[in-house]
Design goal:
Layout: H1 22-32, E1 38-39, H2 54-62, H3 77-89, E2 100-103, H4 105-117, E3 123-128, H5 132-140, E4 144-149, H6 160-164, E5 171-177, H7 189-202, E6 205-209, E7 234-239, E8 252-257, H8 264-276, H9 282-285, H10 288-293, H11 298-302, H12 307-320, E9 325-327, E10 335-340, H13 350-361, E11 363-364, E12 366-367, E13 378-382, H14 387-407
Parallel strand pairs: 1-11, 3-4, 3-5, 5-6, 6-7
Antiparallel strand pairs: 2-8, 7-8, 9-10, 10-13, 12-13
Length: 408
């Protein structure tokens, strides 16, 4: 008897995650053939030689004897209390340890928060371009992602008036990502105030993705969204993976501020989901208190002369000299969202170019359409390689574009 083909769930047909999609799988095949691939597709600091601060590693080692059992489903108390203290230092005074959930990275928490909130057909406002897990999490849980545009001509900052026109009776929440992945935009406080006011007026849950909260450049000012909110539930997401270069620790958190009584049932549902997976990785949680309470070494990397700053400078200069490309100067995060200059390569296709770049030049980028945008003239690169490597990469990309344009 021939076994029938096993079909995946229908919900996955609308889910994309190009960051680790077909191109990344092809890169793995090329690596197995012996090729070295420069992976600009993902913000993974350890791949480029960054290390988590030694104090964090020591905190994990010193507490391994306490890490054998399951912990509380919300996480160990010292980690949750450290998140509370960080929020209080920013002026968010209405969070307690009971309103903090520790997860296996922010990714797990995003999925859990959507699972606890959405019914079939519920809508969530998500920026475009977005970090695609947000759209995927809504889709997988029966919701509809309604993308509010963050336009090139506006520095990839949303227009609150335009966002307001997208709110319907089915809208349950709004996602805000600042500093932004993939564009590097840091939203001005005035814009955030208007987005929060919309959420308060319409009773929307705010999901504020602040995983890059301390990664800003040239004086760009990060504003914690929770500091602007008083009248609706606000979920603030953070973690160890980016600011603290500890992706493999798989430790993220979400804290809830704003009115709790109207959200009581939702928070209990989230607690139920957290309990179903027992708990998140315990050893890594012991690094949270040390990370948030210790020296913030990220600032040494983002100031002039720091490695991230200098690589960003190389990207700005390299793309500024390009015949084909342009980018908004990243104000924060670990990426540049690069686009072909309007009209220069009319038939440019981001997926096709990215595949050619990988096959011929062994450079892996993420096509722009993977960030839920309606155009195919963009790609995202990470700022994690050292500056000299990035200069060489940009020269190679320019050569690849010369060839692509000649064949288009």
């Amino acid at each position: 008897m021939t076994m029938q083909r096993i079909k995946p769930a229908d919900a996955l047909a609308k889910v994309r995650y190009e960051i680790r999609g077909p191109l990344a799988r092809r890169a793995g095949e090329l690596e197995r053939q012996g090729y070295d691939i420069i992976k600009l597709n993902i913000g993974n600091p350890g791949v480029f030689g960054f290390r988590a601060p030694e104090t964090m590693r020591l905190a994990v080692i010193e507490n391994l004897a306490q890490a054998d059992p399951y912990c509380h489903q919300k996480g160990i108390f010292p980690a949750r209390e450290a998140v509370v203290m960080q929020q209080q230092s920013r002026g968010v005074m209405d969070v307690t340890a009971d309103e903090v959930f520790i997860g296996n990275g922010v990714s797990e928490l995003i999925l859990n928060c959507m699972r606890a909130l959405l019914n079939t057909g519920d809508e969530v406002l998500i920026p475009s371009p977005d970090y695609p897990l947000w759209t995927a999490a809504v889709t997988l849980n029966g919701g509809t992602a309604v993308h509010y545009p963050c336009r090139r001509e506006n520095g990839y900052v949303p227009d609150p008036g335009e966002v307001a026109t997208l709110i319907s009776e089915r809208t349950r929440a709004i996602v805000i990502i600042s500093p932004n992945n993939p564009t590097g935009a840091v939203y001005p406080k005035a814009v955030l105030q208007k987005l929060v006011a919309l959420a308060e007026e319409r009773g929307l849950v705010i999901f504020s993705d602040e995983i890059y909260d301390q990664i800003t450049y040239d004086g760009a000012e990060f504003t914690p969204v929770a500091t602007l909110n008083k009248r609706t539930l606000c979920a603030t997401f953070g973690g160890l993976s980016k600011v603290y270069r500890a992706c493999g620790f798989r430790v993220g958190w979400v804290s809830f501020s704003g009115p709790k009584e109207p959200a009581k049932d939702y928070l209990l549902a989230l607690d139920l989901i957290a309990g179903l997976r027992l708990c998140s990785n315990v050893p890594g949680q012991w690094a949270v208190q040390t990370a948030l309470g210790g020296k913030q070494s990220i600032y040494e990397l983002t100031k002039p002369g720091g490695r991230l700053y200098e690589t960003r400078k190389a990207v700005i200069e390299g793309i500024g000299a390009s015949k084909w490309l342009e980018t908004m100067v990243p104000q924060g995060a670990l990426y540049a969202f690069v686009r072909v200059k309007p009209g220069l390569i009319p038939r440019f296709n981001d997926q096709e170019f990215a595949l050619q770049l990988l096959e011929k030049r062994h450079i892996l980028v993420t096509p722009g359409h993977g960030f839920n945008v309606p155009y195919k003239d963009a790609f995202r690169i990470t700022l994690l390689p050292d500056a000299e490597t990035m200069r060489k990469v940009l020269v190679t990309i320019e050569e690849a574009l010369d060839e692509y344009a000649a064949d288009a």
